[in-house]
Structures are given as C-alpha cells and as structure tokens.
Amino acid sequence: MGPRQDRPASENDLTVRLQRAEEALRARELNFQMIVESIPAPVAVITPNGEVEALNKPVLDYFGKSFEELTGWASSDPVHPDDLPHVIEVRQKALESGETYEVEARHRRADGVYRWFHMRGFPLKDTDGRVLRWCVLLTDIDDRKRAEAQLAGEKRLLEMVASSFPLTDVLTELCKFVEDTAADCRCGVYLIDWRGPKFRIGAVPSLPATFNDPCEGLTVSPEVGPCGVAALTKTQVIVTDFESDPVFQSCAIRPLSLAHGFRSQWSTPIFARDGRVMATFAIFQTSPASPTQVQQDLIAQVTHIASIAIERALSEAALKRSEAFLAEAQHLSRVGSFAWRMATNEITWSEQLYRIFEFDPHVRVTLELIGTRVHPEDLTLFHDMIERASSSASDFQYEHRLLMPDHSIKYLHLIAHGTRNEDGELEYIGAAQDVTQWRLSEEALGKASAELAHVTRVMSLGALTASIAHEVNQPLSGSISNASTCLRMLDADPPNVDGARETARRTIRDGHRASDVISRLRALFSRKDMATELVDLNEATREVITLALSELQRNRVIVKPELADQLPIVAGDRIQLQQVILNLLRNASDAMSGVDDRPRQLLIRTEHDADCGVRLSVQDAGVGFAPESINKLFNSFYTTKSNGMGIGLSVSRSIIENHQGCLWATSNDGPGATFSFSIPCVGEGVAGPAGVALTDQKRDARPS
Amino acid sequence: MEIRPLISVVDDDESVRESLPDLLKEFGFAAQTFSSAEEFLISKYLSETKCLILDVAMPGLSGPDLQRELMRRRQDIPIVFITAHRDATVRPRLIERGAVDCLFKPFSDLDLLEALNSALRHS
C-alpha cells in the first residue's frame, strides 16, 4: 500500500512553480493518503485516466491481493465476470464526462466468495474544474442485496400465487429460489394426501428421477424419514449427517440420499392456516450441515409462501370442483340459473341456460332475445311474467314453452326469487328447468296407464269367467244335491213328502241364486254400460292379437290375420268387442289343443259384410262340433271343453247383440269350426227396434 | 238300532251345508255340518267322524290346511274334497296327499256315494 513514487521535476524555469504545485499536490496527496487510510471502509483513488493510484487497507484485506495485483483488476478476477463489462462501461463514461458515478458489482473476497458492493466514484477537481483524481468508495451491500433478492424472489413467488400459476410451477420456482439463494443445496416440496396418508411430489426440480420416483406415493410415516417425522410431529427435523445420525439409520430415504451424495436433510412442515400439515419442505446438502439463522429465516419465508400457494391451490381446486359439480348438476338436471337486474335489464345466465335456449354462450342475453325463443302461443304469458316481475319484488313461477329453431318444443319451468340489493334496486335470481322430458314422460305414462287399463279390461273376461264359474257352481252344487235328495225321498217307502218338499224348495232357491249370478254377469255387459265410440275393427283386432300372441304361440297356434282394407268404421264399445274377439281366439286355440296331426292354424279375417256392415271370423282347425249341438253352443254352461264353463260364448253373443249384430258358428269343410260375428257399420241400422229385429232374424238364419 | 257312520261336511257355502246332510241321511249316514275348518277341529264330532267331505277353498284354514292339521294330529279320517274351482291340477295333488277323491261342484249324488263308499272301505 501507500502512494505512488513521485516523479522528479525536470524543467528549470518552471521548477519553482512546479515545485510549488508539486508541494501543494503532495500536501494534498498526503492529505488524501491520510484521509483514505483513516477511512475504515474500502476506498480507492484513481487517476483521471483511470489508473489505480491508491487503495486502502480494507480494500487489500478484502480482496486478499496486493496493490499491484489489484491495479490490473479489469483483466483479472476481483470483479464478478458477469458484472465486469457493466462496471467498465459505467466507469469509462464517468471518466469521459467527469461526473460522479455509481455502480453495483460482486467482488471476490479473499476466500473466493463474491459479495455485492456498491461503488461510488466522485471526481476531485481543481479550481479550473479539471479532474485531479477520482475517489471511489466501496460499500458492502451484500446483505442488503441478498435481502432484496429474497424480497424479489418472494414477490415473484407471491405474484405467481396471486396469478393462479399452477401449483407445480410455483413450487418449482420456490425450490429454485432457495437453491439460488442458499448455495450448494437441493430442495423439494412433498405434498401430503392424508387419505393415504401418502406423499406426493409437489416439486423437486433439481433432483433426478432416480431420486424422485421412489419418493412418490410413500406412506406418511416415521419410517419414511425426516419428512415423515416432520409431517407427523409438526416440527422441523434436522438431520445433520445421515451417516452418523442414530435416529434415521433405517429410514427409507437414507440409502436413497446417500446414493445421490446427500449427507444432510432438513425437513420442515408446511402448515395450513388451521394448523394442518399440508406438505413438507426438504433441503438436501452434499456435506453434513445444520441450518444457520439466515438459512432458517429463508426456510421460514419459503414455507410460508408454499403454505399460501398450496392452500390456495387446494381451495381453487375445490372451487373449480364445486363449479364443475354445479355445472354438471345443472346439466344433468337441465336446470339453468339466472340473475336479472331490473334497473339495468342486465341478465346473467348460467352455461346450462344457454344450452337450454341453444344460444351461443358469448351472446348478451336480453329480454328481446329470450322472446325470440318463446313459443308464439306463450308470448302473452311471457310478457305478463315480465310485467309482474317489474312491478314488485315478489317471487314468481312460470311454465312456458320454447319454440326452437328446429321447430321442436321445450317446456321450461321457471322459478325466481325477487330481492332488492343494497341500492334498493330490484333483482331476481332464479332457476329455469327444462321439463320437456318430464312432460313427455308424463304423457307417455298417461298413455301407458290407459293402455294398461285397456289390457286389464280386455283380459278381465277370462278372469271373470273363472270367478263366475265358482259363483255359479256353488248354488248349482246345492241345487243338484237337493234335487237328488228330493228324488230319493220321494222314492222311499213310504215317500218322505215333507222332506221332498223342503229339498225341492231349496232346489228352486239355489236355482235362483245361480240365475242371479248370470244376471249380474249379463248386467256387466248390458247396453246401459256400453260406451259407444267409433271403432276400427282391424285396429282392435290387431291389438287383441298382440295381446294374445304369446299365449297363442305357447299353445303352438299359428295366427294368420287377413284384415280387409278400408274396412268401414263401426260404432260400439271397443273393449267389449275386443273381449269377444279374444274369447273367440281362445276358444279356437283351446279347440286345437289336442291337435297334433295338422298345423294348429288360426285364421282371423275381417271383411265387408254386404248385409250387416262388417264381419269378423275366426277359423280354427280344431275338434269342431257336432251339427246337432249347434243350437246349444251359445247357451250358458254349454261347453265342449273338459274344464270350460260355457259362459264365454253366451256372454259374447250378448255383447254382439247389444251392438245390433249377430254371432254364429259354422262347421268347416275340413276340420274345425268358424265363429263369426257381424255388426253394422256407422250409418247403417245402428240402433232402434228395427235393428234388433233384423239381427234376430239373421241370427236364426245364419247357423242353419 | 244300527249305528250310522258319521259323515262331517266342512264348507263355507250355505247351500252345500243345507243340501248335503239330507242327501247323506238318504244314503244312510249320519251327518254334521261345519262352516269352517276351525269349527270342525274344536268340535266333539271330530273323533267320531268316519269320513270328511271338505271344501277346498275357504276363508281361514283351507281344506288342504285342515288335511295337513289332521295328519299332524294323526287323525286318520278319509277325506273327500269338493271344489267349485275346476282346476284339473288340484285333484291329483290332493289325492297324492291322501284324499280319497276330489269332486268338482256340481257333482252327482252317485259320484258322491261312490266316493263315500270308497272312503269307508279305506278306513
């Protein structure tokens, strides 16, 4: 250290002046020297052309270099290579302009560590304003710089959190920030899924897959290692050296860490606001170490930021999930929601409502726009709704139709709740549901239950005859027993006349009971109960075939319908006519149940009937009937079936007669029989005594 | 006087309960009628009954229920079932379980007599 050697004076004539000046200068230099030396902070003196003239002891001590070494600073290593060009540039400009300059740069300390310095160079000028020397003050700003960097890092991280960067990005940045700030370490954030509980890698940006992959999904337990203990005990765990640490000798992470050259691990829990541990923050170092206060401060700082980031990400995910749920729920239930501010006519729609109305989601919703979708017939209703809504803050419900561009119709059910906001403005929030499916299924349900009722009624004849059989058989049984007893009593010797009289009386009573049952049955099909409607006999027949088909197929009956085109419509009770048709089909099927040597063919035919209107015949290939029994066929209780009751045909005939028609049977040329009925079509002898007389004649005429 | 075999009739139908006893007496049997299986089970005639004419379908205990109950009590009374339901599948099932016969109402006096004679031969 010390001033440069003075140069000797040269010119004689100037000697005095020069010597004076030189003396003055020396005095100044001496003063500089003294001042520079007396300043405890690093100071340098530089000549106007930039050469280093003097450096004080703190400078030499800091750099650990000699004065000579430091004079060549610009081509050596005292200034961080990244900062050097800038320093040279700033200084050069200052030398040219003679203005004070300031520049920040990292200076290499004796131990090789770069520290940030602030350099302030100010010119020392003579009375003429010429620069005599530059005095440069070096201020160690490393702590400030570090704080600034940390602050900037923290700010950057918080900005990322605030701008909803993906959590992985934030945590990755966070790890890199720590790695940059505290040299020679690697960092990782391990998220905890408490449902496992399992560790999930949040971010470990600087470690290879060979280290990270085995960590993914590890169970949160003390056996895992420092992070497991930190998570479970909610305290920071410092492993200074895995090789010597007694606690973590057998933990899962130890061999992995050692294999990757890590000796120390510091794990710090990351807490949620409610005190739950959401993750752990780990720092790995290649040499045994425990954290300094500065490092602890850094850890505290980043775990705090990580906590905010994770908690925010979780709540955002939850929010997104619930938003998605809501959207999904709206989609599934076809419910859209809306808000309607009356004062501004501002309408806000949910995504689903746009979907219901089939509007582009970017379109601004107005009442006029909604009006374009309202079914023209419901527009009055729609306007009425708007008028009512505008007048008072009351809740309202409406249902109206939408006419879509493809001409399909939607049913919309709307519920709104009126409130006044803080400014006293009327506002509605509400839900609108697409109830089209409901409406359609309601209609379908109505139709289905009508069909069911229809089927039940058609089928009831079968069930009815069974229960009638029981009802009738009871008194018949009594009647026969009584009659038998009566005969036996009369045959006795002497005849028991009183007993016979009593049993005969009971016979008559039972006969009446049986007759009453039949009357009740006939009453069921009496004219006064008949519903008269227009019936397409073909359609009615097809329905019955459909109804009976499975039963007929089970009996191996082949049904051949031959239904005439343009059959006139008849007037009558469709259900009753169908019961007759069903009865004829069943009879035909039963008649063929023993037939195995020929097809069990059943022909059902409808045709115009010149005289009577419309005729329907059912032709079977069954056992047929004896010609002499033809007159008995339609009597109640006459049956050719072993388990039949003989009621069906008699009831059927009653029904047909009530329709002013007739029902008859004929033997086929081949095997089997044909049962036919004919009834007048609309406009021909529908009612009246004449019709009855006519049909009576026909009935007599037909079977013969 | 000759002791006439007792035939018990269990049927919820009144016309049967009225008509059968006279016919049975004409056949030369003694007769008792009961409107339900329960009534028969508690009656003093149960043990004297030589044959039971039993309706199949009755409110409360049905005919087959009574048949089972009698078997459980080891009361070996021959049973002639009578029914107004012409269900061909019922008859073989009842006979299989030990009934003498099953007559479909209305039945003739001769069919009944034949069944009763067959029943009394059994016992």
Strand and helix layout:
The complex is a heterodimer of chains A (704) and B (123).
Chain A: H1 15-38, E1 43-46, E2 52-55, H2 57-63, H3 67-71, H4 84-97, E3 101-108, E4 114-125, E5 131-140, H5 142-162, H6 167-181, E6 185-193, E7 198-203, H7 209-215, H8 226-233, E8 237-239, H9 253-259, E9 264-271, E10 277-285, H10 293-333, E11 335-341, E12 346-349, H11 351-357, H12 367-373, H13 379-391, E13 396-403, E14 409-420, E15 426-434, H14 436-491, H15 497-524, E16 533-535, H16 537-554, E17 558-563, E18 570-572, H17 574-591, E19 601-609, E20 613-619, H18 648-658, E21 662-667, E22 673-679, H19 689-701
Parallel strand pairs in A: 17-19
Antiparallel strand pairs in A: 1-2, 1-5, 3-4, 4-5, 6-7, 6-10, 8-9, 9-10, 11-12, 11-15, 13-14, 14-15, 16-18, 19-20, 20-22, 21-22
Chain B: E1 6-10, H1 14-27, E2 30-34, H2 37-42, E3 49-55, H3 63-72, E4 79-83, H4 90-96, E5 101-104, H5 109-122
Parallel strand pairs in B: 1-2, 1-3, 3-4, 4-5
Quick overview of this protein structure:
The complex is a heterodimer of chains A (704) and B (123). Chain A has 704 residues and is an alpha+beta fold. The model of chain A is unreliable at 1-11 and 684-704 (pLDDT under 50).
Can you describe this structure?
The complex is a heterodimer of chains A (704) and B (123). Chain A has 19 helices and 22 strands. Chain A is α+β, with helices and mostly antiparallel strands and 704 residues long. Chain A folds into 5 domains: 15-140, Beta-Lactamase (2-Layer Sandwich), CATH 3.30.450.20; 147-315, Beta-Lactamase (2-Layer Sandwich), CATH 3.30.450.40; 330-434, PAS domain (Beta-Lactamase), CATH 3.30.450; 440-523; 527-701, Heat Shock Protein 90 (2-Layer Sandwich). In chain A, the strands form 5 sheets. A 5-stranded antiparallel β-sheet of chain A has the order 2-1-5-4-3, with helices on both faces. In chain A, strands 7-6-10-9-8 form a 5-stranded antiparallel β-sheet. Helix content of chain B is 41%, strand content 21%. Chain B is globular. The A-B interface holds A 466, 469-470, 473-482, 484-485, 488-489, 492, 499, 502-503, 506, 509-510, 513, 642-643, 645 and B 13, 15-16, 18-20, 22-23, 26, 57, 82, 84-88, 104-109, 112.
